[in-house]
Structure formats: C-alpha cells, structure tokens
Amino acid sequence: MSQISSQTHAISINPATGEQIGHYAFESAAALDAALTRAAYGFGKWKRKPLQDRSSLLTALAGALRETSEAMATMITQEMGKPITQARGEIEKCAKLCEWYAEHGPAMLDAEATQVEGGKARIEYRPLGSILAVMPWNFPIWQVLRGAVPTLLAGNTYVLKHAPNVMGSAYLLRDAFVRAGFPDGVFEVLNVTPEGVSTAIADPRIAAVTLTGSVRAGMAIGAQAGAALKKCVLELGGSDPFIVLNDADLDEAVHAAVVGRYQNSGQVCAAAKRLIIEQGVVEEFTRKFVEATRQLKMGDPLNADTYIGPMARFDLRDELDQQVRDTLEEGATLLLGGRKVEGAGNYYEPTVLADVTDRMTSFKQELFGPVASIITARDCAHAVALANDSDFGLTATIYTANVALAQQLTSELETGGVFINGYSASDPRVTFGGVKKSGFGRELSHFGVREFCNAQTVWLDRK
User: Which residues contact 234 (CB under 8 A, 6 or more apart)?
Assistant: First the structure.
C-alpha cells in the first residue's frame, strides 16, 4: 500500500497514526463520462417525481444515516481526525437536516402568484439539472448534505467530487442514499483528478457548480464555471471576528470562544479565529480563556472524552506552524502551545497568541487549526473596524449585555452572518454564506432550495 501514488489514487492517511488506511484509484475519462450520463438521465426522471416523493426519500435518508451512524462517524475520525463524539454529532445533525427539509422544504418551492398590469403572473421554481459539488474534508458528511439535501429536493441531481483524503466517507454516504431508495443517477460520487473536475465543469451535462474550499480553489473553480457560463456558489472560509465588549458576561463569552475556536481541532470555516476584546476586559478575558483552553484534552480521537484531535493533513500542520512562528516574530506573545507534538500523529498544541495587531500574520490570514489570536480594541467602534479589516466576511460574533447596541453594530459588520451572544453555527432554518473573499451564494433555508433553480415567470392572460 505504501507504493500507491497520489498521482493515480486518492489516498487516505489516518492523521492520528500517520498510517495509510485507504487508497482509491482515480476514475478514467470513460468512468467520468458514464457518471455524468447517469446524472443527466437521472435528472430527467427525478425532476418529474412528485415533490412529496422526493421529500419522503429525504426522511428515508435520515433513517439510513442513523442506521450506520457509528460506522460513518468512525470513518470520519479515522480519515480526518475529528474527535469521535463530534463525528457522531455531525451524523445526527445531518439526519435532522434531512427531516427538517422533508417537512418544511416543499413549501419553499410553491409558486408565487401576483397581479401584473393587464393580467396575472406567477413565479415557479424549476430545477437546473445536474449540480457538480467540490467538497472539503473538514465536515465530510455535513458539508455535502447541507448543500445536497435542498438541491435534491428542488429536483436537481447531485454529482459529488469529494476531497481525496475522505473518499471512504464519500462512498459510505453514497451507500446511505442507495439504502434510502434514491433512484440511480440522483447522487453520484466522482473520484477524479483536478483535470477531471475541469472536464466535468465544461461538460454540458453539468448545469452549475458549488465549491467549499480555499480562496485559491474558489478562484480556479469560479473562473472555469464563468468561462462555461454556469452559475456557481462558493464558500471559501474566513477569519471570523469574535468581539467581546466591556459589559459582556465573560464566563459565557470565554466558554463560547473556546468552543468556537477549538471544535473540530480548529478546522472550521465559521469559527472564532480573531478574538477582538475591548480593552477594559481584555486582561481578565485572556486569563480565563487560557485557563479554559489549558483544560482541553488532546489525544486519540476515537476516545469519547477527547476534544482536540490531530489535524487532518500533515502539510496543513506545517503551514499553521509557520503562520504561528511568523506571528511571534512580528511581536505577538505566546501564552499557550505553539508547537507541533512529536510522534507519528499529526497533532498541534492548542495555542493562544496575545498582543496580536492588524499588521500580523494571524490577523491578516486564516489560521485553520487550533490557534486563537487575541486582539485588543479601544472601544466598540474600533472593534468593528478591526473586524472588517479582513479579506474575509463569513460570520462574526458580538458578546455584550447591550443587545440593542449589538443589533446596531450588525449593520456595520461586513459578514454573511452575525451571532449575538452565541458562537457561529449553521442551521437549516437560516441561510449560510459569506461576502468578500469568503465567497458568494447561499446554502440552507429557502435560499438553499432555490439557489440552483430557474425562477421562471409565467404570465397569464396578458392583454
């Protein structure tokens, strides 16, 4: 197995041990063509299936996920290092997503009738076709389903190209769709090279593209989709601000900051990455935050009480370590951690950087790992200015006892979502997405259902 090349295979390495646990040969051009044909043929049937039938299959998918929850959670943990308790939670969250859309989603596709001059009109939502989804490894099931479920409900088919290190999770998810009774071609999994992705984007059988990933990947995929005149949705991560004002409940704020920064070993797009603390409480907040972070248990991700597991990829740990080193050289203070853990596993110590300024690496760049940066703000206006001083704009958090002030500040924050006295999360009842280099387009809520629909205007009796 050690002789398998990443040029010819998607390779899965257990980041807790450094051992190769799976390899999957990249599919040929003929196999790619066959998958696109199945998806296109499946679309022709799927879009005509009664909406209630599509909805019922989502309920069945929720059951299929729960039936194999432990196997899927274990695969996630072994492939990318997510602590097993969090991996189990990911599967349950996905099952609830399916059930929520099964109940509430059909109404989101209702025609919208209106009066127009000289007659009547309505807007009807029609599916576009087969949607190519290029997905990341950090939430191997949730990232896929939060886009796939509303897209499928609308009548589209879904073609998944997953990250190479989590192909085992991708195939288990495909099996769940089969067990739930989804017809052939409705949910396809591709295991292809970047060249294969480019081929798929250019192929007329693909109607649109969605990507969750890096800015660099978003620029490449977005350019290719644009060249093919195809709609795309991009979610490209962020460097989310977590603002704490002087009147905040510090115990609550610290707890939320620790969870918001270190869940999934810090490998979350919408996470508390830049802790912007008003100067009146920055000393007390920092002390409590370091104490709480020090209590987090790092270790074997298959142990139920582990909170910090290994980082998913060794190259990303090296990149994170360099970002930390650069920030320290620029004048930041290291309060905790700051080192790679020796041994075969891909662990990085939970790290806290203080005295970070807007000129430093950890302020300007996204740090995708268990590293928190504490920045001091003079007042709430300065905190908002610091929050907006970023290329990213995914989510933001404000902790304060003055909710009216927080609501006022939300209009000034350049992000897709704002959380008042709560850390960033995603939920099917509200939309999710970003601005600036965090991407464009929206997932979840009714926006997710309609994102890959043709909003077709139908005129009646126009005089």
Answer: 210, 211, 212, 218, 221, 222, 439, 440, 441
**pLDDT of 1 higher than 50:** no
Query: Annotated active-site positions, please?
Result: 235, 269
User: Which residues, at least 6 apart from 193, have a Cβ–Cβ distance to it below 8 Å?
Assistant: 26
Summarised one tens digit per residue, pLDDT across range 352-389 is 999 999 999 999 999 999 999 999 999 999 999 999 99
Cα torsion for 205, 56, 449, 230, to the nearest 10°?
Answer: 0
Q: Which residue is it, tokens 């043709």? A: 454
- The residues, ordered by sequence, that sit 6+ positions from 423 with a Cβ below 8 Å of its Cβ are 242, 256, 257, 259, 260, 272, 397
Tell me, what's the pLDDT at 448? 97
Domains of the chain with bracketed CATH: 9-236+438-460 (3.40.605.10), 241-427 (3.40.309.10)
pLDDT at residue 295, rounded to an integer: 98
pLDDT of 3 higher than 80? no
9-35 pLDDT tens trace:
999 999 999 999 999 999 999 999 999
The band of 462, judged by pLDDT with boundaries at 50, 70 and 90, is confident
d(CA 261, CA 207): 36
As a whole number of angstroms, the distance between CA 287 and CA 308 comes to: 20
pLDDT digits (tens, 9 = 90+) for 413-450: 999 999 999 999 999 999 999 999 999 999 999 999 99
Helix axes 51-67, 142-153, angle to 10 degrees: 160
- The phi and psi torsions of 439 (rounded to 5 degrees) equal 110, -165
In three-state secondary structure terms, 199 is helix
The string over 142-173, giving b where at least 16 C-beta atoms fall within 10 Å of a residue's C-beta and e elsewhere, is bbbbbbbbbbbbbbbbbbbbbbbbbbbbbbbb
Answer for the pair 233, 211: CB distance below 8 angstroms, yes or no.
yes
Neighbours of 460 (CB within 10 A): 10
Structure tokens at 395: 């989510």
Nearest to 200 by CA among 180, 176, 225: 225
